[in-house]
Amino acid sequence: MPAHSKRRPIVEAGLALVHRDGFARTGVAAIAAAGGAPKGSFYNHFASKDAFGLELLDRYFDDVRDALTTTVADTARPPVERIRAYFELLGELGERDAYARGCLIGNLSAEAAPASPEIRVHLGALFEAWTLAIGEAVADGQAAGSIRADVPAATLAGLLVDAWQGALLRAKVRRDGAPLDAVLAVLVPALLAPAAP
Amino acid sequence: MPAHSKRRPIVEAGLALVHRDGFARTGVAAIAAAGGAPKGSFYNHFASKDAFGLELLDRYFDDVRDALTTTVADTARPPVERIRAYFELLGELGERDAYARGCLIGNLSAEAAPASPEIRVHLGALFEAWTLAIGEAVADGQAAGSIRADVPAATLAGLLVDAWQGALLRAKVRRDGAPLDAVLAVLVPALLAPAAP
Questions:
Q1: CA separation for the pair B111, B104 (Å, rounded)
Q2: Which chain A residues are closer than 8 Å to B170 by Cβ?
Q3: Where do the DSSP E strands lie in B47-171?
Q4: Residue A101: CB partners within 8 Å, gap ≥ 6?
Q5: Which of A195, B64, B68, B136 is most buried (most C-beta within 10 Å)?
Q6: Is the pLDDT of residue A120 over 70?
Q7: What distance separates the 2 farthest-apart alpha carbons in chain A?
Q8: What CA–CA distance (Å, rounded) separates B180 from B10?
């Protein structure tokens, strides 16, 4: 079996391990083995653990994009509803996971950013793409008058992403969804509400 | 020199290492050596790496308390100003650090919570204590009419902490303070504003 055919199973299996245990804590031998490759073969498939980390993040961001596509990007619905639907979907995914793993992008930002400039820069690009997608719904709401227009859409979108990431950390520690519920019930309306006329 | 006299230097030096590099990535030999103890002596001082992690968090939380005491707990000032002063102080500390390390509590929530129930539970208690301290200023503001009173003070305080933690992650990845500035300029006023009469 040629080496490249093992890449995808290793990335898939490695994603599950790193999402559960963290990047530093997950060894390359365990990643290879989980993907059905010989333990010592990791570096036949990836130039370095950091190179693997970049592929891992891209693979994870495919799922982020899928979730965005069915919610935030669904322009048939009102903008605020699109944003709410997105975070509601993330909340359901978190609940299914008992809030154990959190977001891979947030986790790697906390743990891997100091050690690897490549991963840090790549995480920055993913945050940008993520904020941009939410920012489009915010801008649509600003144009429609349902979202405050005195703050740039990108700023509001960034704050939504940040509040969610922070709430995920606390949900992970508490193992309950109350911090996520509060973002949806209190923070989203407070942050996006148009100024009183 | 008796073993216990080395504990404090090891915790201090270990704090610097773990804050910079993460918990999983920092080995016990390096922690002992950084504290001036023989490399192999870590387990003479701490029952386990997790036990050391708990001490590390308490040591870090001493600094959190100091920052809270001079800002959020300064009841001579108006409540919203106390809250702003606290996050402004954290922003200055972040800037001094070029946003490289972020918050140890957030970092360990992301990376260590899945692996150690003791650390996870302890992180939960620190988040509670932290939220409680900020919640007191929120409650004072609610009583004075300067902060919305239709949402529990603890919920608003939790959202402030979460938004800050998430913004710290993005600041760390970007190596700039714009996400933190946005929390102060946009999120704090939007979240705390009393309902229009």
A1: 10
A2: 109, 127, 158, 161-162, 165
A3: none
A4: A19, A20, A107, A172, B114
A5: B68
A6: yes
A7: 67
A8: 32
Q: Is residue B56 a contact partner of residue B14, using CB atoms and an 8 Å limit?
A: yes
- The CA distance from A68 to A65, in Å, is 5
- Cα–Cα dist A79/B60, whole Å: 42
Whether the pLDDT of residue A54 is over 80: the answer is: yes
Which stretches of A22-71 are DSSP H helices?
28-34, 42-45, 49-69
| pTM of the full structure | 0.95
> Between chains, do A162 and B173 touch, taking CB under 8 Å as contact?
no
Q: What's the length of chain B?
A: 197
**Which pLDDT band, with edges at 50, 70 and 90, does A1 fall under?**
very low
- Cβ of B174 within 8 Å of Cβ of A127? The answer is yes
What tokens appear for B46 in the block?
A: 């701490």
Residue A74 structure tokens: 């669904």
- CB neighbours of B16 closer than 8 A, spacing ≥ 6? B34
Residue from the list A20, A114, A168 with its beta carbon closest to the beta carbon of B100: A114
